[in-house]
Amino acid sequence: MSSSYLIALGSNRRHHLYGRPRDVLRAAMEELSALGTVTRRAPVIDSAPMGPAQRQFANGAIVLDSEYDPPALLAGLKRMERQFGRRKGRRWGDRVLDLDIVLWSGGEWQADDLLIPHVDFRVRDFVLSPAGAIAGDWRDPLSGLSIRQIAARV
Q1: Is-above-0.90 flag for pTM?
Q2: Which domain of life is it from (predicted)?
Q3: DSSP string, 55-100
Q4: Spatial separation of the C-alpha atoms in residues 121 and 138, rounded to whole Å
């Protein structure tokens, strides 16, 4: 059975093959088709550094239809981050690629290493803006509000 996922993408470091962070995200959007069918892509936006990060970020979002359950999809996303050159480091530090499951068609998911909906998405304009462009009517299973409604409050 296929599920739909809203995936947030971020980058603020160049990649040796793909180049600038915006181009890293475009390449990652293509590569994500290995995990399912990318049905919608948000325009890539620029956003300010967060926490210890020093460089401006490029952010985007996709809707992915996939046969994978949330833990298997998370494993695939983490593998892709490593393939793009992401190294373990500080939270919110500079990174080549960051991929997060924000929402999924199954509602909530709770496990030690994965919470859906993503715990911080409601207060992050750099997630809500791209997500609203492609999935504005998707609802947060906890608040019942649509992404568009949440974004209007931020």
Answers
A1: yes
A2: Bacteria
A3: S-EEEEEEEEEESS-HHHHHHHHHHHHHHTT-----TT---S-EEE
A4: 13
b/e per residue 108-130 (b: at least 16 CB within 10 A) = ebeeeeeebbbeebbebebbbbb
Encoded amino acid at 136, one letter:
G
End-to-end alpha carbon distance in the chain: 34
Torsion of CA 31, 70, 102, 80, to 10 degrees: -30
CA 24/CA 72 separation, integer angstroms: 23
Domains annotated for the chain, with CATH where assigned, are 3-153 (3.30.70.560)
Structure tokens at 70: 């949330």
